[in-house]
Amino acid sequence: MRRALAIGLTAIAVLGGLWVSPILARQPYNGPLFDAHLHYNDEACVHDAPAPGCPHPLSDVLARMQRNGVQAIIANSRPNDGTKALAQAREQTRAAGVTVVPFIRLYRDRADYNNWFRDPSIAELVRTELTQGTPSGPYRGLGEFHLYDSANAQGAIARELMVLADQQDLAVLAHVDDVAVEQLLRHTPSQGRNTRLIWAHTGIGGTPVARVDELMARFPRLMGELSYRPGLTCDDGQLCPEWRALILKYPDRFMIGSDTWINQRWLYYDELMKAYRLWLGGLPPEVARQVAWNNGARLLGLPDPGP
Ligand SMILES: [Zn+2]
């Protein structure tokens, strides 16, 4: 009876020119989001300076997260003061419903981007931060760090920090190419088997999907964060077919992130999250929930916040 009615209504809609394609009819994902790549850098706020030194105070960035349903973040900031400011604001973050998962950024300033992998003072910085922790608890990971040339994955400090990550069960957020992913993982005592490496952007240079697939198969704890990933979405804002297939093949291995590396990303934070919700809504609901929330929560031991 109901089925007959539905068919009848569909026929009327088609005849009346009201046919809505299945893709247009999809609803954006409306559950919680885990932002697995968030910076609160000193361009956004120098924490002991009033405006204009702080164009995006805590109240502003937390409001952006809250209104977008972002309920947890991997916070990593240049310098680490931004992450500590988030970690310290216990009442404000609780009120906004945001759990802060702190990672140690390896950079004091921009010069460190190109030198950290061979600079012993960076290993020193990491050990000091690990000892001190943050007001919301211990650091849970290292990064984001960059390797613009994969050969630098062989740097002494890059090796040392990957061993440290394995020994202390720290996750790693790495902006590197596919060759460096393999090299970094091979430096670890577990040869990458136990290493929770989050591949920032999952190949920002456009690593072929087949190669991403190969690495996911080889390293069972490798995770892919999807900001700035070329070729991820197609004209309709939905996942391109090969990415949809890859995410369906590894539904527990991908995460979303904002990468607020410059203030413009804060200004467009709403649009970024809306774009994620749009393509997440095109996935089966249980897979959308995994990519949006569960994968990050599982990786870092967060409770389920409910619907
Ligand atoms: Zn980043």
UniProtKB/TrEMBL annotation:
<protein>
    <submittedName>
        <fullName>Amidohydrolase family protein</fullName>
    </submittedName>
</protein>
<dbReference type="Pfam" id="PF04909">
    <property type="entry name" value="Amidohydro_2"/>
</dbReference>
<dbReference type="InterPro" id="IPR006680">
    <property type="entry name" value="Amidohydro-rel"/>
</dbReference>
<dbReference type="InterPro" id="IPR032466">
    <property type="entry name" value="Metal_Hydrolase"/>
</dbReference>
<feature type="domain" description="Amidohydrolase-related">
    <location>
        <begin position="115"/>
        <end position="302"/>
    </location>
</feature>
